[in-house]
């Protein structure tokens, strides 16, 4: 029975069987009005006003007014969702990552390590760093029994810096990764080296190589970690290295 009101006779007149509750009958703090609502804590409070926009972040433009932040200056909800899953301060992560690139070819024409210097990277003190290095041999060794050598050293032995990792390169077919002897232990101002197999490097052309390891920078003093690529035999015009890059990421230990 829609729109039906039940009434009863009270002896002198009809009255509603279930009388309507009026605003005045409600016991609550505050004042009812067109911009207020009754909250669960028995109080009349001003309801938020304003308007929003699809995919924009809402914010308070006043104590009771809501607006939307324009995507011209602020991230959209979609862009904000990109940081989902981040478990620590992003800027701190950036600060703990160091990169160094050198795209200029290095002609390693002799067997002297210093002539094959490629690049160095400064590693802050008191930390363990994941070091990822990538390079490219862009010129073949031809007619000479000559091995390519990757050399590593540091400018400071304070705190006994160490390096543990391995050097890899693609074989002549470009399909399989060959691993050269691992390097580990203390890094000094003298060179620690990896030597590629002579038979493999005799046919290297446009072949990538990489080094992956963990470097401990020691204490109190930052370290300059230096990388070299040179050859085992002094022969002119054999190995050229280019497209070299280093990424050092501090590890949480």
Overview of the structural elements:
The chain has 253 residues and is mainly β. It has 2 domains: 13-77, no CATH class; 90-250, Jelly Rolls. The chain is built from 3 helices and 18 strands. The strands form 5 sheets. Strands 8, 9, 11, 13, 14, 16 and 18 form a 7-stranded antiparallel sheet that branches. A hairpin with a 4-residue loop joins strand 6 (58-60) and strand 7. The termini are far apart. The relative contact order is 0.21.
Describe the protein's topology:
Elements: E1 7-9, E2 14-16, E3 36-39, E4 43-46, E5 49-50, E6 58-60, E7 65-68, H1 77-80, H2 90-95, E8 97-102, E9 106-108, E10 117-123, E11 128-137, E12 148-154, E13 162-170, E14 177-179, E15 192-195, H3 198-201, E16 207-216, E17 223-231, E18 239-250
Please report which band the strand proportion falls in: under 5%, 5-15%, 15-25%, 25-35%, 35-45% or over 45%. 35-45%
Radius of gyration: 36 Å
How many domains would you count in the coordinates? 2
H/E element sequence: EEEEEEEHHEEEEEEEEHEEE
Quick check: average pLDDT? 78
The tally of helices reads: 3
Structural class given helices, strands, pairing? mainly beta
Helix percent band: under 10%
Assembly state (oligomeric) = single chain
CATH architecture of the largest domain: Sandwich
